[in-house]
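Batch job 17 of 40 flagged for manual review because the log was empty.
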Amino acid sequence: MTASRAADGRLDARPSAAPAGPPPEPGVTALDLGPGAEVLLAVPPGEVVALLVFFHGAGGSAADALRAVAEPAAARGVAVLAPTSAAATWDLIAGGLGRDVAVLDAALADVLARLPVGRVALAGFSDGGSYALSLGVANGDLAEAVTAFSPGFVAAPGRYGRPRFWISHGTDDRVLPVERCGRRVAASLTADGYEVGYHEFAGGHVVTPDLVDDALRWWLDG
């Protein structure tokens, strides 16, 4: 991936009908992508039907992402790819797209060369939700869907493809208030002509197992 592609938020990796590499073992493994790149892959036992990329919230990690979604995803046969941001939050928010996009693209290239899946979605919580939305708009030719839990905004450098969007937000969110964040983001994407499922719940700035189940069901069964 070139620096200009990373700065545009574009991902080059694509699924393969016939992956060449040995399939990843079930369980959680750390990808070897070089110094400073931390990416975890959680593979469920049995048939893997799809790949979910999940971005943690500010100050979080790949391990936090897996704790939030790996178990419900495994129950649906979904592998989870979870990168850790190079800075305290994602590059889009911490100065501009670049390193995190490049690491993600390398991780996707590695996994998609070994995992026979045709369905890919992006997801995230809080800052990670904003990142998933923004990269989803910029990479709708890769990600068929985006699920964002308590996001703050969407700021895509470009638009490619027509992914579907699912957004949840707590009505008592004190970190990213629902009126200026979840509602505004959902309205903006809808006005741009995207299919948007928007769900408000009585609660704060959280991602819960039932919300993850709802998002997975919306994506896989919709």
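Reviewer: the log was empty due to a logging misconfiguration, but the result itself is present. The radius of gyration is 16 Å. Unflagging and moving on to job 18.
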